[in-house]
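Quick illustration for those who missed Monday's session on complexes.
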Amino acid sequence: MPRERQPARSTTTVILVILTGLIFFADLQFEFGFATWLPYFLLAIPVSGLYSRRVFLFSVGGWTVLITAKLAIHLPTDDLTTDLFNRTLGIVGLWITAYLLYQHRQLGRLRSEDEQRVRTMLDGALDAVITIDAHSIITTWNPQAEKTFGFPREEALGALLSDLIIPPAFREAHLKGLQRFLTKGDGPILNRRIEVTAVHKDGREFPIELTVMPLRMEGSISFCAFARDITERKALESTLRQAQESAEGASQAKSDFLANISHEIRTPLNAICGTTDLLLTTTLTAPQRRYAEMCAKASHTLLCLVTDLLDFSRIEAGQTQLEQAPFDVRQVIDRTVQLLTHRAEEKGLTLTFHLDPDVPQYIEGDAFRLHQVLLNLIVNALKFTKQGHVTVRATLAHPSKESSRIRFSVIDSGIGIPADQLERIFDRFTQVDSASSRHHGGVGLGLAICKRLVGLMGGRIWAESLAQSGSTFIVDLPLTAAAIPERPHGQENASRLLQTALPLVPSTPAEQRLHVLLAEDSLESQELMQFYFRDTPYQVEIVSDGERAVAAFQANRFDIVLIDLQMPGMDGFTATRSIRAWESAHQRSPTPILALTANAFREAEEQSLAVGCTGFLTKPITRPQLLDALNKYTLSAPAIDSQPQKVGASLDVAARIEQEIQQRRPQFLEHRRKDLGAMRQAAAQQDYEAIRTMGHRIKGVAGSYGFPDIGAVGQRLEQSARARDLAAIHREIEQLAAILVQLDQAA
Ligand code: ADP
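Prediction with adenosine-5'-diphosphate bound:
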């Protein structure tokens, strides 16, 4: 290395100077000037070998011996001037020659050192390094290139890159790219990392990662490419992708399963809850009443559990979408507290709420989810408090302008929670004392749901408690104050109703009612919905297809729209899109639109939300579900207790409606008998669309009439018609016929 030879060079230079002096001195002794320039030039030869000391010393030593010997033979000349000129010229020539030779030698050495360095790097490089000239001829091919592509160096050098490692399909593109660079000076693949396919010597194609850089040197252009075989990485990526897809598939299957199963479980469960509640309104003997009460309690607990499980899995699967809309905080707390007042009274507890005057009336957020969290906390507080009070407070947590948060506290005077359990209770399926929880009911999901919901809302929930001295659950939510929303039609009356008429307003004057537009093609569903709306402060206008729904919406003002997604002609999706478009063209604030469908699948929900629906109701819809949804989505709608079993006044109405539905069951069955004929005919003509529509309708409405089996047949018919499985269709038609016969016999 040059650096290490530095001392040798300076020593050699000193020796050179001394020897030159000696030769000059010796030459002065010769008569005609010692061979004039010759010795000096000859001396220059070893000088050029400055870095090979042995050669140098040998040559200089030889010349010194020769000159000294000549000195001993000849006498000095008389013509001193000529001698001096000759010798001076000789020495200058010597130095110039020595310098030029020295420079040449230096450059040669540097070049070979560079080459050595580059070769070492190329040999040791983990990437294949290839250079090609402007004609795509390979000029460098390192050992890794040999390994990667299988061609030995001798074979690769001088070959055309395109012939060697570029798959035939890409050869033309490669040559065009090269040409483009040569003419325009740019290229899409230059100077960046890309993934391409290459060919191995054995003919197999494989993926490589490639960076190509142009090299401009002394007027010529070449390209340097760094390539890496990424077969393994790609295989790993594909395995990971497959694993992810199968995990997503499993999660999708889980959510489909949950949607299905919850639908299948909830329908009969609703029927059990409804009929036991109904049973409790009749005259019963004491043991009968006790059994009916036990049955009602157990079925309601089961319904809550199924609902919690579904809710939790939806949140876990990231399927819960929060709304961001202005709502009245007082109204939400008021409604939640009102719902539970009865329960508090039963236990002799005081349930109150205080709203700090600083809290703005309207805030942005998801009113329903807030209601759900508060409901859960208050239910727990009532559950774990034997005597005393439960208080709900809403205050401002950080009243500074930038980071204001609204704080909801649910304070009770109950059994309290040990300090070491305060965090654990927010884990799923965790209860402080499973024995006492068994007594109170519940499975430890409520707080886990609350924690996740609050997290989704960007807030925090925690508990403070001292065992035996009550608990406080605190929910801190980011506060975004909202402007007072434009009052929808009929709001003043509705607000008044809220204050005075919980739980039901049996005789609201027509002009004070909230207007509902229902788009539903099935006559049975229409009829059912009419029952549900009976004795509520809602006035319903029913249309039977999407086109009529859009026309009705444009002609009148509605507080909410319920729209069936699958209707003949214009379906619910298209109608919703048209309504939204019309609203924005007329600068109208969006009216809540609830999609009605017999599909409990996420896709249907997502699709409906994507076209502009505000919410989603899965058929069969029960009256409480409908009223809950109306409560939730009509901002200032009169709060209606959707759970009639808790409140005596509404029980009468619910029972009456239930009775009416019961009375219509024979008619429902009669329709199914007619369907049978139509279906058989459609099956004979292979009219799958007709069968699908009939199946879909049956699926949507049968559960509400208390015939889950018929609903299930409807669902299978719909699926088989989609799959064009004629055999399965015939099977299901006969199944429906068998059920109808059985019901006839039972009657
Ligand atoms: P669940 O009530 O269904 O058991 P939660 O997740 O709502 O499930 O509550 C978990 C546990 O936290 C309860 O079982 C109870 O032990 C404890 N807990 C919740 N709220 C209170 C409260 N207000 N006072 C005392 N303990 C409570």
